[in-house]
Amino acid sequence: MMVTVDSRLAGGGSLLDLCLSAVLYLGLNLLFILPAWLLHRRWPELDVIQIAGYGLGRGSMVVAGLYVAYFLFMNGYFLSFFTLFMENEVNSQIPVWVVGAAVLVVACYGAFLGLESIARTGGFIFLIVCAGMLFLLVCLNQELRAENFSPLLYDGPQTVIQGTLLFVSRGTFYCILPLLMPRTTGKLRIQYLLWNVGLCLFFIVMLVTVCGALGPMAQLETAPVHTAAALAQSGPFQRLDAIYIGIWMMGLFLILSLDLYLVSVCVSRIWGKAAGRVSILAGAVLLLVASNTILLTAQMQQALFRLEIVLSATLGVGMVLPLVVYGAAKIKQKQGE
What is the pLDDT of residue 63? Predict the structure, then answer.
């Protein structure tokens, strides 16, 4: 989400206004996660599909299907966004579908290894990503100009509102946590709070640095962080946009591998483990075909990237669906008493 920020998708105003969006996003994160916390607090050892099986019976198949559809939809969104960027912004001799296929192959391997392997790899990648982003930001310091900064809300609140909705729509962890929390240990509330505060602060620092380096040009760029990285330099290091692309690919690998693993979990709950493992490969093939098909026409790209569609899907599966499952399970529990 940080590396793919684009002010045009967030209303077209100053990129600096998205700092306020990041703060609002932090507050909304603490609110929107409540349905998942309700489920976990009442049934800490069960995921949302198992709870749906208790409260809805065969209706749990619908719940599992909605989660699978959402994960595949969002993975298609993220992968298409990446391949579209590679096609339009990067002068590469390799076809973009080959790059997408390579990322999917590695993501499938991670999904087959399971959650523990993904978590360990994620911790290592997290350190690399943080180091890479910090290196870029430090190298950009010499490009900062005071005249590049504009007053907050200079063009009105539209960018702040649109940016907040954009961040919420891409926040897939509302849907991931109801499936992951039973598999985690430790003080989850404190970890979740610290993670979101750290993410917000890092995002603000990145936005301020990019705006200070690019000025008004930042709101015209499809990928302003990539443009800023191309300007960054430190001694013998020139055009550090390769670091940016590497960071994006590592983040994409993590989200694809985790979501494909969760697709297999949902399918396994209904049709067994064998079907769950097959669903990883089937999902990857579907994502590869869909991400390249979307590149064919501008109309398909506009339909996929529409904020209303992505936001409705995230809030529907991330908030409404867990509340429905919680209500059904509570009713079933009272009837049993």
Answer: 92
